[in-house]
Specification:
By secondary structure, the chain is of the alpha/beta class. The protein has a domain of 232 residues: FAD/NAD(P)-binding domain. 33% of the residues lie in helices and 26% in strands. The strands form four sheets. An eight-stranded mixed β-sheet has the order 6-5-14-15-16-13-17-20, with helices on both faces. A six-stranded mixed β-sheet has the order 8-3-2-12-19-18, sandwiched between helices. A four-stranded mixed β-sheet has the order 1-11-10-9. The longest helix has 29 residues. It starts with a strand and ends in a 15-residue tail after the last helix. The structure holds flavin-adenine dinucleotide.
Length: 418
C-alpha cells in the first residue's frame, strides 16, 4: 500500500484545516457552514456517491432554522412538497379511524415551518453548495480506516480504491460518519451504550392513488400492535413513504412477502398489490444509542456517529443538524479568536445531554405510542395525544407549540468571551 500525507494548512486566523469524515447530511452541512466562514475543510467520504437510501424526509422547526442560516432553505423548499397540511394518528381498523392530529397549516406562512424533502435530494443540494466554496474539498472514495492525534494536530488515514493510503491532517477531525462510525470505533471500540430493538424497519417509496382518493394527506401514524408505522406524503408526483415495523430475524424475501398483508391492513381502501406501485425498499435495524463522550482531544463526533434513535418523530437528523449548528458556532468562535478550545467541551457535554435527556426518551415514547398501546384507548391513556386533541381546537396555541424554541436547541455563542 502506498502512503502519503496531506499537511494541515494553518490560516491567518485561529484555525487551520478541519477534516470531516463522512459526506452525509451532517458532514456536508458542517463543511458548508465552516467553508462559508473561510475555514479550510476536507470531507472524506468512503462511497463513490451520495447515499440514496430511504431515510430522513422531515425536519422540524429547529432544523429548518439551521437550513436557513446555512443558506439552503429556499432550495430545500423548492425541491420538496409545500403541501404537508397535517399529521394524524390513526387506528388500523376498516376505516383507519383518525384518533387526533395536528394541523400544520397554522404555520403555512411562517418561515420556520417544518421542511419536507427526502434525504437523497437534501444531500444533492448540500453538495452543490459545498462545491461553490473554494475552501471546501469533498473527496469521494476515501474510506477512513484510522484516526489519530498529538498535541498540535489530528489526522485521518483514508484508503482509496487503488489501495493507496493517504493521511489527512487538520486542527481537528470530526466524525460525521454515521451509525457505523469508524471514528467512534477508533475512540471507543465497540462500546456504544444503548439498545438495538428486536424489530426490523421496512421503508418504501409507494405510489397509490387511494391515499388521495380517501382524503389522506400529510403524515399518518398508524397505531396497532401488528401494523405500526408511518404513511406520509413525501415528494412531488404522488410519492408516499411507507415505514412500518415488523418482527426481527426474517430474510429480506420473507419481509417482502409479508408486505402485502401490512399494506392491505394499513392503507385506506385495503388494496391488493396490483393497486399500488412500490418503487424502492430499504430495511433497517432500529437502535437507540449514545456515545459516552463526543470529544476526545482533537477528535469530535457529531450526529449519528455519536447518537442514534428510532426515526418516529423525525428526531434523528434534526438533532444531528443541531449538533452541527452548535459545533459550527464553537469552531467559528475559535477561528475568530472569540473563545478558546474549551468551548468544544461545552459542545460535547451539552449536545450529549440534549440527546440523553430529551431526544432519547421522546423518540422511544414516539415509537411505543404506535406499537405498544391499545389503539382503542390511546386518546384516554396517552398525554401527548390529549395535548394534540386540545391544540386542534386552538390554532394560535397550535402555532406557538409548533414554532416554540425547543429544549433540544442551544446557543453556543453565549460562551464567546469577546
Ligand atoms: C427510515 C428512516 C427514516 C428517518 N427519517 C428521519 C426524518 O424524517 N427526520 C430526521 O430528522 N431524521 C430521520 N432519520 C434519521 C436520519 O436519516 C439520520 O439521522 C441522518 O441520515 C444521519 O446523518 P449523518 O450525516 O450523521 O450520517 P449518515 O447519513 O449515515 O452519513 C454518514 C456518511 O459517512 C460515510 N462514511 C461511513 N463510514 C465512513 C468511513 N469510514 N470513511 C468515510 N466515510 C464514511 C457514509 O458513507 C455516509 O455517507 C431517519 C432514519 C431512518 C433509518
Amino acid at each position: 500500500m502506498n502512503s502519503r500525507t496531506e499537511l494541515s494548512s494553518a490560516g491567518p486566523s485561529g484555525l487551520g484545516k478541519i477534516v470531516i469524515v463522512g459526506a452525509g447530511p451532517a458532514g456536508l452541512l458542517l463543511a458548508l457552514m465552516l467553508g462559508q466562514q473561510g475555514i479550510p475543510v476536507t470531507v472524506l467520504e468512503a462511497w463513490g456517491r451520495l447515499d440514496e437510501r430511504l431515510r430522513a424526509t422531515q425536519y422540524g422547526t429547529p432544523a429548518t432554522r439551521v437550513f436557513r442560516k446555512a443558506g439552503v432553505l429556499d432550495e430545500i423548499r423548492a425541491a420538496g412538497i409545500e403541501r404537508f397540511p397535517s399529521i394524524s394518528w390513526r387506528k388500523v381498523d376498516p376505516e383507519q379511524t383518525r384518533i387526533t392530529g395536528i394541523d400544520l397549516t397554522v404555520t403555512k406562512d411562517e418561515p420556520d415551518r417544518t421542511t419536507v424533502l427526502p434525504l437523497n435530494l437534501l444531500l444533492k443540494i448540500l453538495l452543490e453548495h459545498c462545491k461553490r466554496q473554494s475552501s471546501i474539498e469533498v473527496k469521494f472514495e476515501h474510506k477512513v480506516i484510522e484516526v489519530g492525534q498529538n498535541e498540535s494536530k489530528a489526522w485521518a488515514d483514508a484508503v482509496m480504491p487503488s489501495n493507496e493510503r493517504k493521511r489527512f491532517e487538520g486542527d481537528y477531525v470530526i466524525g460525521c460518519d454515521g451509525a457505523s462510525s469508524t471514528v467512534r470505533q477508533q475512540l471507543f471500540g465497540r462500546n456504544w451504550p444503548g439498545i438495538t430493538w428486536d424489530h426490523s424497519l421496512l421503508v418504501q417509496n409507494v405510489f397509490y392513488d387511494g391515499f388521495t382518493e380517501h382524503g389522506w394527506s400529510g403524515g399518518n401514524y398508524m397505531i396497532d400492535p401488528n401494523h405500526w408505522g408511518l404513511i406520509a406524503e413525501r415528494g412531488k408526483g404522488g410519492l408516499w413513504r411507507v415505514t412500518y415495523g415488523d418482527i426481527g430475524g426474517l430474510t429480506h424475501e420473507q419481509y417482502l412477502k409479508r408486505r402485502e398483508e401490512h399494506f392491505e391492513a394499513m392503507f385506506p381502501g385495503h388494496p391488493k398489490p396490483d393497486q399500488y406501485r412500490v418503487e424502492q425498499t430499504d430495511q433497517f435495524r432500529i437502535h437507540n444509542r449514545c456515545v459516552e463522550k463526543m470529544r476526545v482531544g482533537r477528535i469530535l463526533l457529531a450526529a449519528d456517529a455519536a447518537h442514534v434513535c428510532n426515526p418516529f418523530g423525525g428526531y434523528g437528523l434534526m438533532v444531528g443538524v443541531l449538533d452541527i449548528d452548535g459545533l459550527t458556532d464553537c469552531l467559528i468562535g475559535m477561528h475568530q479568536r472569540k473563545v478558546g478550545d474549551e468551548i468544544l467541551d461545552k459542545y460535547a457535554e451539552i449536545r450529549r445531554e440534549k440527546f440523553l435527556n430529551y431526544v432519547e426518551p421522546r423518540s422511544i415514547k414516539n415509537m411505543n405510542r404506535l406499537r405498544a398501546q391499545n389503539p382503542d384507548s390511546a386518546l384516554r391513556d396517552d398525554k401527548f395525544l390529549q395535548i394534540l386533541a386540545h391544540l386542534e381546537k386552538d390554532p394560535e396555541e397550535a402555532k406557538a407549540f409548533l414554532l416554540k424554541f425547543s429544549s433540544i436547541e442551544h446557543d453556543f455563542k453565549q460562551y464567546y468571551i469577546i
